[in-house]
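[job 4471] stage=fold_predict status=RUNNING
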Amino acid sequence: MLFPSSIRRRAALLLGVVAVAATGLTAPAAQAAAPTTTPTYPLGLQPSPPSAVAPYAVPANGASFGDAPIPASVDLTPWAVPVGNQRNVGSCVSWTVGYTISGWYAKREGFAGTPYAPLFLYNQLTNGRGGATVGTTFFGNLSLEQSGGVLPLADFAGGNYTPTYLPTGADKTKAANYKITDWGTLYYNQTQSAASGQSLIKQALANDKPVALGIKVYQNFYGVNASNPYYGSVSGSFLGRHAVSVLGYDSYGVHIQNSWGTGWGSGGFAWLSWGFLANYSEEAYVVNGFTAPDDGPSPVVSSLSATSGPWTGGTISVTGSNLTGATVTFGSKTSPSVTVSSSTSLTAEVPAAAIGAVDVRVSTPTGGRSNAVTYAYTTATPTITSVSPAVGPNTGATAVTVTGTNLHDIAGTAYSLTVGGRAATSVVVASDGVSLTAVVPAGSIGAAEVKVTNAGGTSAAATYTYQWPVTPVLTIAGPRVTTIKSGRVALTGTLKLPSGIAVGKTTVRLESRPKGSSDAFQTVASVATTPNGKVSFATYPGSSVEYRLAAVGDVTSSSTVVITVQPAPVIRSMSATAGTKAGGETVTLTGENLFGARVTVGGTPASSVSVSVDGTSLTFVAPGRSPGKVTVQVITVTGKATAGSYSVTR
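[job 4471] inference complete, writing structure tokens
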């Protein structure tokens, strides 16, 4: 958008640029020979006067700049024109503005006349005195094309390499049909570049607006090639300044189209890092639009068979008019497959894209670009049907294949595979979105949840089981006396692996079942081992119980501990209460809990103690004693009881 108060000033500055060109512009003062091991290329960017470009700074000029959300990456190269070659003419700015960016707009909109002649602009700005050492400014090219337009190359007698040819009046009349509608300044000095250039460039490209970029060139820039099209640091001599077109970005930097032919970079394209731009880019401008005549009736979109669908894509039908030969775009993405049934209907494959609303348009070779109809990408939750293999060592590093649905990986969206909450590595998604491969992280022994997360959400969990890398040994130890009265019992255990393999904290279960039973063991408690594999439990059995330890990974102890619960003894009767000092009398006691009992008579152990099977009675032989009255006691491991008094006679 131009500001009316500055139109006259801008025109005067443009005339000033042309006037300077008439006296002959010089190449950058620091221009030097390129390395002998790489080709040499022309430059030709002259810095724009700050007073000329400052009034058109973005966002002050942002009305036509746009405010679309900034995604992680943008690619506008689907509408790029064939890479040009300025050869030995300092016309890089005219190639950037008049050929590449204007051609990009014309190709996307379906305008006629492409390609456009860069020397139509360059020769006017240099007054026919251009050449290898004569450059121009962004301000001059942008202003001239906005006010006077650019001529189709087929109509320009000067071609691409005759800098002395000046356009005729007829040339200028026709060129007025092909114009930049508006342009804005992103930045025009190094300080602005470092401070705000990255976000401004991203915002422009996110709004489908190519960027004209001015950079400083050093010797190693000439060596960018197909095997390494990424450029992030400079070396060698400073050679001068150069103009390129920016048609995309990602986390590394910007994707540029150059005017040095397909032998430079990767077919004429390369990537410049964000760090390089912050240090060696001095100017950047956004071209907001381009207008040109259409060759035929414009296509019209009346309706879509579906106005929303999953982010993974699909197929829709388009109805309208003048659809013959159409291509279909969904936002900045081109449909990979279009079948035109008639001039009023077609079917198009919906490309996968990030969630959100986009404009659907139809373009034809003769009619240009249609009206926009909104299509909304919606969520499509991924699912998992299998994980193979489904088991592996807890050390991780196992390669697995996950199958399911909606597993597509869309650039710029969140994407992860987790196992037990830990991120897998080396995730590679099949193009059909029904499988992926990944490397499992290390985890804890036992079952772990496997989940896929992407732009459509998070899947339901599948299961992957971590196993021990080698079989561990689990042992249990109980108290020395395993027949006890009801109360607390302390049990200890050890989980051991071969020397050199750490156990780490591992869950161990205490399991039990009734003494003598063949029933399955039931879990009593679970605790984590110490790092060296030790574990301890406190339990309170109410009856006789068999205990064992078990660990995750189906590891159980090779032995058990049996705890017999026996209350203290109880005496209800004694068959005799007297005997001789010589002893030898057999006495019977009745009561309860007499298992394992021993008997004393006045503190002297009785002999031949025999306990009944049910523990309710016992017999003993009285020992010899001095005459008098003594006490008979019954003693077990769980307590003692007094049976009564026993009189010893002469």
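[job 4471] summary: The chain has a mean pLDDT of 87.
[job 4471] exit 0
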